[in-house]
């Protein structure tokens, strides 16, 4: 990680990411996401536990404490506001926005966040459809909670016969790969777009998603991280 990356905040945000994706937050998952060794992750998690930011449950999954969750929400809010600025104002290419926002999230002040909310017209989601958490802490009123009840994951739809759906959210995990993000954009698998999800039999087969401009095959782990609203 470079000098602009706060290791503790990256761990907190990664745990938050995993929770959003419905993946049990384990040290092994953090090692995969951040490309760090097992011993390094274990040492960092132990330090964060001593600092009161998380606890390790009996089944070894990681749980954020109240203080840890508050800080994770703050980092994610900064990250997604930065993404909106980079897309809506600066015009940075869609596939490069996530990695750039990972730098901004650690240096942005709350005063800048408030200015950004006004400048951007009060956004409630990132350019990838993910809800911006903790906006109430910036004095934003009447923020409607995201309607998650009718959303499904691409892999779930594929295993249940497939069908047409509207892309709603592309998780942080997917955004780490600029080449994949380019491919999704090129074939039309972007938030708000209607796609066809092809039925698949078997737990580990790639899932074909057909957009307006072509199709792509997603590994199961990636398909699980893309949420849609069935038509």
UniProtKB/TrEMBL annotation:
Name of one Pfam family that matches: Fe_dep_repress
Any one of the GO CC terms: cytoplasm
The organism's place on the tree of life at top rank: Bacteria
Cited PROSITE patterns: HTH_DTXR
Residue ranges constituting the HTH dtxR-type domain according to the UniProt record: 4-65
Location of this chain's protein in the cell: Cytoplasm
InterPro entries assigned: DtxR_MntR_Metal-Reg, Fe-transptr_FeoA-like, Fe_dep_repressor, Fe_dep_repressor_sf, FeoA_core_dom, HTH_DTXR, Iron_dep_repressor, Transcriptional_repressor_C
GO biological process entries: negative regulation of DNA-templated transcription
GO function terms (MF aspect): DNA binding; DNA-binding transcription factor activity; protein dimerization activity; transition metal ion binding
Keywords: Cytoplasm, DNA-binding, Iron, Transcription, Transcription regulation
Subunit structure of this chain's protein: Homodimer.
Family: Belongs to the DtxR/MntR family.
Protein's recorded name: Dihydrofolate reductase
């Amino acid at each position: 990680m470079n000098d602009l990356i706060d290791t503790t905040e990256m761990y907190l945000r990664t745990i938050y990411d995993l929770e959003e994706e419905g993946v049990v937050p384990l040290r092994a998952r953090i090692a995969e996401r951040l490309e760090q060794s097992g011993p390094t992750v274990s040492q960092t998690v132990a330090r964060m536990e001593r600092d009161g930011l998380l606890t390790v449950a009996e089944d070894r999954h990681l749980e954020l404490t109240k203080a840890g969750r508050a800080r994770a929400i703050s980092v994610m809010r900064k990250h997604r506001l930065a993404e909106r600025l980079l897309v809506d104002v600066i015009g940075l290419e869609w596939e490069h926005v996530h990695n750039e926002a990972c730098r901004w999230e650690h240096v942005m002040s709350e005063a800048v966040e408030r200015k950004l909310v006004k400048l951007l017209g009060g956004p409630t989601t990132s350019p990838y459809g993910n809800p911006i958490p903790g906006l109430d802490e910036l004095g934003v009123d009447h923020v409607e909670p995201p309607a998650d009840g009718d959303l499904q994951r691409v892999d779930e739809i594929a295993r249940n016969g497939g069908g047409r759906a509207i892309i709603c959210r592309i998780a942080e995990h997917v955004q780490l790969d600029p080449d994949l993000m380019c491919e999704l954009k090129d074939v039309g698998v972007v938030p708000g777009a209607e796609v066809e999800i092809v039925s698949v039999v078997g737990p580990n087969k790639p899932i074909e998603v057909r957009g307006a401009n072509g199709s792509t095959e997603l590994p199961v782990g990636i398909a699980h991280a893309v949420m849609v609203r069935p038509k």
